[in-house]
């Protein structure tokens, strides 16, 4: 779908404004920004437009977040523009390290991109044996199922790391692909967020 026939003029205005805000500033607009753009006085009027776009599966709204708006793949197709996907910023490829979660958005033209895809920029050299070097942007797919040997993004509270998941005789741990680093145990509070399925500028080795 490449036309805007599915939208009214006002709905089109809202969707385009969300896209322009993300592309130019790196952030979705706030309700106040949208009120000003639409020249309306109430948040409810804005929320009504957002609900319509969400029902059309063009955007997703995260409750409780001031800028919790995401354009879905269908929304980019309707606008006729390349997909913008979120990037986590810097994620450690060493021991657990705090992740800079000021999301950036990067233009991505791959037709295979889906709504559960995001990017993460690697910091460190613990995964060089898997072809993931310091500064690489990796493509991560959110998942709830993980298999032995997959490279995963793991989170422990507000700290993240990318490692190979190893399950050995009932024991699971996160394995670096560099002999300089030690394995990382998986604790009850550890959460596996997604799996690395590729990287920008080349395939994983």
From TrEMBL:
Residues 89-197 form the Peptidase S24/S26A/S26B/S26C domain. One of its GO terms (biological process) is DNA repair. Residues 7-68 form the LexA repressor DNA-binding domain. The keyword Lyase does not apply. One of its GO terms (molecular function) is DNA binding. It comes from the Bacteria. Keywords: Autocatalytic cleavage, DNA damage, DNA repair, DNA replication, DNA-binding, Hydrolase, Repressor, SOS response, Transcription, Transcription regulation. It holds the Pfam family LexA_DNA_bind. Belongs to the peptidase S24 family. This is Repressor LexA. It comes from Candidatus Woesebacteria bacterium RIFCSPHIGHO2_01_FULL_40_22. The lineage of its organism: Bacteria, Candidatus Woeseibacteriota.
């Amino acid at each position: 779908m490449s036309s805007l026939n599915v939208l009214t003029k006002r709905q089109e205005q809202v969707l385009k404004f969300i896209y322009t805000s993300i592309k130019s500033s790196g952030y979705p607009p706030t309700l106040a920004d949208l009120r000003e753009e639409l020249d309306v006085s109430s948040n409810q009027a804005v929320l009504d437009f957002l609900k319509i776009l969400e029902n059309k599966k063009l955007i997703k709204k995260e409750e409780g977040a001031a800028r919790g708006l995401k354009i879905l793949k269908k929304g980019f197709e309707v606008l006729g523009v390349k997909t913008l996907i979120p990037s986590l910023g810097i994620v450690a490829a060493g021991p657990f390290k705090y992740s800079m979660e000021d999301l950036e958005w990067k233009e991505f033209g791959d037709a295979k991109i889906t709504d559960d895809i995001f990017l993460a920029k690697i910091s460190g050299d613990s995964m060089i044996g898997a072809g993931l070097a310091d500064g690489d942007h990796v493509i991560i797919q959110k998942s709830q199922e993980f298999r032995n040997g997959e490279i995963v993004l793991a989170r422990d509270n507000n700290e993240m790391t990318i490692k190979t998941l190893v399950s050995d005789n009932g024991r699971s741990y996160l394995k670096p692909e560099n002999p300089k680093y030690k394995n990382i145990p998986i604790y009850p509070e550890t959460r596996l967020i997604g799996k690395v399925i590729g990287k920008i500028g080349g395939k994983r080795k």
